[in-house]
UniProtKB/TrEMBL annotation:
It comes from Coemansia furcata. This is Mitochondrial 54S ribosomal protein YmL41. Its EC number is 2.7.11.1. It is an enzyme of class 2 (transferase). It comes from the Eukaryota. The keyword Ribonucleoprotein applies. The gene is MRP20.
Length: 148
């Protein structure tokens, strides 16, 4: 009998944990910026079940927002509060490699489109710059490699 796929419902959390590199932490600790409504048990559960990390301790701190002055009204305002979680693991923690935005997330296409729109606003007689031509060449080469 063939195995059926798609019969089990999987629920992905809509939480965003932003990793914060901190040189002051030990080798088996990592710092995260987490939503305000998440508690220590949720953080431990999230990391163990989704990323298979053996968490031994979680410490959290809520930081007040920075105080600023509105330049139009002159009133004092605060930015939103943030929550930081320091997680201790059993094994040594390694930070992931930094992503290359141009290759992994379409950064070249975004740069090219921004330059094209800026030229369009200047008028229809504007010729593409050397930088724009170089971006177009890089995009063409990238698309040719992806077709192979």
């Amino acid at each position: 009998m063939a195995q059926r796929f798609g019969s089990l419902r999987v629920y992905f959390p809509n939480l965003v944990f932003k990793i914060i590199p901190d040189a002051r932490l030990s080798k088996n600790q990592a710092a995260f910026r987490v939503p305000l409504n998440v508690n220590k048990l949720d953080i431990k559960d999230y990391l163990t079940h989704i990323y298979n990390v053996n968490v031994t301790d979680v410490r959290t701190a809520v930081f007040q927002g920075k105080e600023t002055v509105n330049r139009y009204t002159g009133q004092k305002e605060r930015t939103s509060r943030t929550k930081k979680a320091i997680v201790t693991t059993k094994e040594e923690f390694e930070y992931p490699a930094e992503a290359n935005v141009d290759q992994d997330f379409g950064g070249l296409e975004v740069k090219y489109e921004q330059m094209r729109r800026a030229n369009k606003l200047k008028g229809w007689r504007i010729r593409p710059s050397q930088e724009m031509a170089g971006l177009r060449r890089q995009l063409q080469e990238k698309h040719e490699q992806s077709k192979k």
